[in-house]
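Translate structure to sequence.
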């Protein structure tokens, strides 16, 4: 789960303009049973199971509910891994109709356990093809975000040292004892940073890289909150906590967050992004097998890739839209960065090797 997004979602009240939603479900017949169905009334509640970071503006969600005739019930279930475990345990008798939040690090596990019913969402043609990882449409891509090293601009300006830009830079002597990262066994960004090294150096080279990074003084803490808001000198929280690490593993969307919550609000972000250190996360949603309200679930999936939701999403979850025509808010375009070439590892490769990679990483980095 993106702890950055959980933090931002709890603090931010977004009130974006309301326009016209594309059709979601068959709202004109919402109270009538379909042909061949029983006389039982159509369910009016659709349940979305998600990790804790899911968030949407009230006005945008209300418009979907009014147009579709469904009331959305949100069931948040901890971090992404814990939420997925619950759905695997309840396979066939799910707690809801749609599951949101499985990402490309856990995707193969979800698909192999068969918890989703295939559905090609309306509007999928508008999703950028690089995000469509499941050709059977068991899951629909909803958002993307990049896990990257962030740096404290003031520290490097004061020291007259250029901030690092690549993974190779981080093992250079001038950056010794400057980086803090999260534990790959307990943290989503920590795992993403490990996977960035696998993507860059391959299955045969990443261990050597981490041996060098450890020798160069990388600090490992349990989670993002401790790394970013306590140990990192560039964040508002880190300044208060007197953090002394000017490099931290966080997100490409973290600088806009620093601007949004700055007191006073800065003209530019106090933190930057090392663009050659990134791993791309893609989050998906799917129709749960055995859903009590399958039609409502389909309508909800259509909504999640509608332009209205996709443009609302960045200021609520601090992630990027996946549809071609969705515009980013000015906060992102002015203070964020676009990662042109993030590292990637195929979901099936992650699924096959994740446990042994994390175990090997722990022996190298946590000792």
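Result:
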């Amino acid at each position: 789960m993106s702890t950055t997004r959980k933090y931002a979602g709890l603090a931010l009240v977004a009130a974006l303009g309301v326009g016209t939603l594309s059709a979601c479900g068959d709202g004109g017949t919402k109270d009538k049973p379909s042909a061949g169905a029983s006389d039982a009334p159509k369910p009016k509640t659709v349940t979305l199971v998600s990790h804790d970071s899911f968030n949407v503006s009230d006005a945008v969600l209300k418009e979907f509910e009014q147009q579709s005739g469904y009331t959305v019930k949100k069931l948040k279930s901890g971090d992404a891994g814990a939420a997925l475990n619950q759905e695997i345990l309840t396979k066939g008798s799910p707690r809801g109709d749609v599951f949101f939040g499985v990402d490309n690090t856990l995707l193969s596990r979800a698909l192999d356990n068969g918890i989703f019913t295939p559905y090609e969402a309306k509007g999928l043609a508008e999703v950028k093809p690089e995000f469509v990882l499941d050709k059977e449409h068991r899951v629909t891509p909803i958002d993307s975000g990049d896990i990257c090293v962030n740096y404290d601009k003031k520290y490097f300006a004061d020291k007259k040292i250029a901030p690092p830009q690549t993974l190779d830079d981080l093992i250079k002597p001038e950056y010794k004892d400057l980086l803090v990262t999260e534990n790959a066994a307990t943290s989503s960004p920590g795992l993403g940073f490990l996977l960035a090294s696998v993507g860059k150096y391959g299955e045969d080279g990443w261990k050597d890289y981490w041996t060098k990074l450890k020798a160069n003084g990388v600090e490992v803490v349990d989670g993002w909150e401790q790394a970013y808001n306590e140990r990192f000198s560039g964040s508002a929280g880190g300044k208060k906590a007197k953090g002394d690490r000017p490099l931290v593993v966080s997100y490409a969307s973290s600088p806009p967050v620093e601007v949004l919550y700055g007191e006073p609000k800065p003209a530019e972000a106090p933190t930057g992004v090392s663009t050659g250190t990134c791993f791309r996360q893609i989050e998906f949603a799917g129709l749960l097998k055995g859903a009590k309200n399958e039609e409502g679930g389909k309508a909800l999936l259509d909504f999640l890739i509608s332009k209205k939701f996709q443009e609302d999403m960045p200021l609520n979850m601090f992630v990027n839209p996946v549809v071609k025509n969705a515009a980013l808010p000015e906060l992102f375009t002015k203070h964020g960065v676009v990662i042109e070439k993030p590292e990637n590892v195929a979901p099936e490769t992650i699924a096959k090797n994740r446990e042994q990679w994390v175990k090997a990483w722990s022996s190298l980095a946590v000792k």
